[in-house]
Amino acid sequence: MGLINPDFQTLPELFSSVFSHYRGKEKKFPFVHKLNGIYEPITYEDFHEDVQNFTAYLKENGIEPGDRVAILSENRPGWYLSDMSILSLGAIDVPLYPSLPPNQIEYILQNSEAKAIIVSNMLQLGKILSIWQNLPELMQIIVLNRLEEKIEDVTDLNSCKIEGKKILQAKPRLLEGINISPDDTATLIYTSGTTGLPKGVMLTHRNICENVKSCSDLITLDETDCSLSFLPLSHAYERTGGYYLLFGCGAAIYLAESIETVSLNIAEAKPTIIFTVPRLFDRIRANMQKQIATESQLKQRIFSFALSTGEQYNRQMAKKGSVSLALKAAHALSRKLVYKKILAKFGGRLRYFVSGGAALPKETGEYFSSLGITILEGYGLTETSPITNVNRPEKVKFGTVGPTVRNVEIRIADDGEILFKGPNIMKGYWKDVEATAEVIKDGWFHTGDIGRLDDDGYLTITDRKKHIIVTSGGKNIAPLPIEHLIAESPFVEQVIVIGEKRPFLIALIIPDFEKLREFAVTAGIGDATEKELLENKAVSQIYEKLLRSISRKLATHEKVRKFLLVAEPFTLENGLMTPTLKIKRKTITEQYDKEIEAVYNELNMVYNTE
């Protein structure tokens, strides 16, 4: 069926057409959330009434077209409700990651001149109250949870809905005649960036609507589909793909309780499609392998047989378009014994995982595909609304992000940079003409990513332009492919490769301590602390061997000569990752500057005496 209304031009038009389509259909629902440990649906009828009432409240309380209203909340029904209500007024919403500290929230609220903010709970309210004195434009705060005590100019969502209902009874035509143009700004999404202050990306209704339409052409979705939402709605990827696209097709969105409960919630929701990031696959794969290791020798052999059969099957299908009868029979047996049981762990109905937000290692995609799980890797940026490329269900090429979606043009510049043109390209950066002019030239958006196209138009991202390492010998090296090779080792949790203006490359490695402890037991050092493990010679040899083995796949100047083992992982909490889980290379190299310097001094001494 696809989109219920394929001709919508603005997001309120999308919302309105879906609500009209499902009016009176009590058994259909857009959102499902956990209440007292049980998944409870919210009907279209009830949700639409809430949107009307909250919109009326906001309008009567001074929110006008073009005003900015921030949303600081985890994924929950109130997030969707806030978004729909703000956009229905022609106002602009400003989504904020709930993990942001007060000083970063303050900068975004000041820069966007937000008139109001909707927060989820008392923790988020506390952050706003601590900075409110520095926000002269901020007139009111609305809390999604019920307020226990009265605070001046702070109200809760329940009170807003009650008041909004009274307002509409007194003024039934209040929400009529609001004119919203496709070229009006719908949202202001601040990109955290790995350096510098965040920039507000202005996305118009046309930008997002056209991107939703383009995506609906690729994957057939209808009201029989459902998804599990756990990526933050503050991110353009979840918002366009995991919210507007699904809602526009009549699919149900189940809300995960938390990132920790995803595997449990998948089994409960029985999704047909899941929008996710590569890190989830690492976690799933590690858990699967841990589980298999506890099974009998026979079951382990059956799993290995099924994995190997899947690999051969995919290889032959890609090469010839058909497989031998013997392989077909082995594949059918593997499906019965292994693939169906794995699918059952995901609820039994899963058609696709859609992966974005970061590069999916080729080997990871192939591994899951060999077990009958399809991952469609895509690509895009906040500035492109965000989806520009996606692998097609009928032809997946792992290691690529697929061809462009409809309406998007692509070009590879002479220096390898990926450029895009299309109706999905942002209006510009908020109050930053200079930064806008730097990235949009002659209508082409310059992504800052390096890539190449194959004969089928499938795009491979090779690195970030800013990440390219230029050694002291003048060699240009893309660190990402080298990092992927290192990260394939089960002993590596995270890695970054360093070498800017240096004679050689070195790697900063966060070990997988669980795997190291398993090794420590077999090596007779099972009682060692993390620090002792990092300094142990036998442990060092694991990583020396790893670097030697990947050296064979690299050019001389790409070889990683030395490594530095570090215990603390790169996380959002310690400031070494952005809210979109991208590693802050500059911050990390600054933090470990002395240790890196010591490794290079040692290396230089070795090479100078040779």
Automatic annotation (TrEMBL):
SUPFAM superfamilies: Acetyl-CoA synthetase-like
Keyword entries, A-Z: ATP-binding, Nucleotide-binding
Pfam assignment, any one: AMP-binding
RNA-binding recorded as keyword: no
Catalytic reaction annotation: a long-chain fatty acid + ATP + CoA = a long-chain fatty acyl-CoA + AMP + diphosphate
InterPro entries: AMP-bd_C_sf (IPR045851), AMP-binding_CS (IPR020845), AMP-dep_synth/lig_dom (IPR000873), ANL_N_sf (IPR042099)
Name by which UniProt lists this protein: AMP-binding protein
Species in which this protein is naturally found: Chlorobium phaeovibrioides
